Each structure stands twice: as structure tokens, then as C-alpha cells.
Amino acid sequence: MSYNENKSVKAEEFRVSANNIKRCTRCALPVNWGITKLDDQGVCNHCHYYDTVQDKLRDFDRWKELFTNHLQQHKGKYEYDVAVGFSGGKDSSYILHALKKHYNCKVLAVTVSFGFMPTSFALENSKRVAKSLGIDHVIYDATSSQIYESFKNAVKRGRICALCTGLCSAFTRKVAIERHIPFYVLGADRGQMFRSLAPETAPVSGAHGIREMLTPYSNEKTLKNDNPRRVKQMHSWLGNFGLSEESRREIYPIAEHLPGAHAVPLQLQFFLFHAYNEKKIKKVLEQEANWQLPAKDHLHAHHDCTFHDAATYFFRDAVGTTITNGEICVDVREGEISRAEAIQALGKEDKRLDQLKQPYAVFEEYFGIPEKYLHQAAKQFHRRMAVLKSLRKFQMLFSKPKLKTLDSL
Length: 409
Hints:
This protein is an alpha/beta fold. It has helices spanning 45-57, 60-72, 90-101, 120-133, 145-157, 160-178, 190-194, 207-213, 219-225, 228-239, 245-251, 278-288, 308-319, 324-333, 339-354, 361-367, 371-398, and strands at 15-16, 21-22, 82-85, 107-113, 136-141, 183-186, 266-269.
């Protein structure tokens, strides 16, 4: 059933599952996910905002042409056309396949190893895929004591996924700068990119970055997106996790111009320009890239990270729902799965998490953080989120949101 067909789902499904949480009658998003409000028909504010931008976000003929035009600006001018942040997971593996097979790019795959990500399974997958596709592959060792301490701090604050994503992007960018590669491509899926698009969640929506990527290429654009102010902001963010100033400069250096061009490497999110269907992606990879499906798989699984289940459990422990809820519900809005399939997938995830006997044991094993402390940290995270939600609601009531919307794309 497509997203549009789900618009008429009746309100008897308004309350679902064992924990009796209200869910959107169209996308199944629970009311305790972020700032979520339901109208009289039980439809959430995220669905309503998506209605206003879905035609533009899913204009894939337009965005594939734009993606091609981006690449054509510097294709063949340097040793590599594009660097790809490559964990060996399904999304980054598919990006390598598509760039090589469909865009005929010279690709450098960049795997950033933190010791826990990628897992040994994902690392073996990455080696198989790169070899199968004939793509050069470098493994960047990021297991320094500074990185270790930063992740330990991130665990205590419930921000380990954010730091991991940020560092993977930063190290891939660093390689692109050092190797004079004009583009570095990352593999966030559409659920991850669009889960917080509604104006109520503007501070974390990423709408500004989406707008910038979905505009025509220019040298000025690359400089605008990677200027000293941006570097300063990134250094400040990394400093929140205890990284020294020297480490921050090393991880996120000021970008250098490409040889012979007044431009710097530009970041692109592949699935912003292309449709996303997880089942099709896995099938293509198994058939054409020697990628192996994990024995125990589920929707939006992250088998490339040792800490994924623990981090997911922490988020649910703190706010009552998993961050995967937001991602899977985007799949419903995009028409890739039905609402019923989403509820089924989310129910399986809850059951799987409930069956974890020691959900935080992996954090104690790696960082020496006891489970008791993590339950306390989850409560603190809950309080911080509650304060932020209250502040945002206040802003929405008494001031016009200053948000770079997607309406004018």
C-alpha cells in the first residue's frame, strides 16, 4: 500500500501495541518521538509537512540529472572522481556499486576504523565488495587515545551515533582534501535525512544542508559550504566531546583548493538524489557485488556497528521510543513500505531489544562504564530532551521559525 493510499487509515488503529502509545494514523510515528502532534484525524505534523515537499523531494529525474552535473564538473581531472565513506554496510556498499556501474566514476572507498565500527563482519564485507567491483580501498585507522576518550564521553551523553557519523564524514573529507578528490559521498538513507524535517524540529532538520546540495554546482558553492566559519563550528562541536584543539585541527583541517581549480571537495549525500528501497538494495548487492546479508537481519539494521543495539536501547530507555521509529516512518511517507509493515518492523525491534539480557554490557566492555551509570545517563538525557522540546515549543508559539525550508527548490 502506498503512502497516499494510507491517508484514509481509520482511527481504530489510533492506539497500538503493548505500550498503548498513540501513533500517527498515516505513518505510524508515535507521539513521544521528538516534537510530534496529531490532528483530529490522528495525522502527525511530520506527515503534513512532508505533504508540502514530497513532490520536490521525490523528483528523482531532476535530482539524478543534478547529481550527474555535479560529478561532470571535475570528472576525469584528478586521480579519483569521488571518495566514498565506506563501512561495508548495505548503503555505502550500494553507493560504490552505483557510482562504478551507473556513473562510471573512478572511486576511492574510505573505511574509517574505530575498533568497534566497522564490525569484523562489515569489514570483511567491505573488502569483498571493493575487490568485486575493482575499486581502490583504504582503511583509515582512527583508534587513537583521543578518539577513544571522545567516544567514552559521547556514550555518557547519549551521543555516540552522532559523534560516529560526524567523525566518519570528517575523516572521509580529510582524505578527499589530501588526495585532491573533488567530491566525497556519504550514505545516510532518506529516513535518516528526513526524519526531522518538520519546522518544529528545525534546529536538527538539516534542511539548510539539503537545500545546498540540491542547488547547481559552482566553485563558489563549494567554498561557501566549507569556509573558515564552518570549520570553526565543526571544531566547536568536536570540542564538546573532549577532543583537543590539535586533534580537531587534524581531523577537520581547513580545506585546500583543488589543483587548478578555485574549489574545494564538496560533500554529497547519495540518497538525497536517488530513491531508497532497502530490499532492492540488498538484492542488488548480493547478486552483483559479492556482499553478504547478515544471518539475523531486520529493517534499518546497522550490522556495521558493534554498539548499534546498545545505542538504540539507550535512546528508547531515555525517551520511550527508538530513533528508528522516525526513519521507518519516512519509508511509509515515501511509499516504500506500508503503515502495517512499519508497525510490524517496529514491534520486532522492540521485542528484540526487550530480549537483550545485558543491553549495556558492550559499553562496559569497551569503556568501563557500568550499566547503572548508563541508566542514570538515560534519565539525564530524557530531562535534556524535555527542556529542549519545551524551548522549541515556546519558540514556535511566540516567534516565526527562521528555517531554510525546501518549498522553493
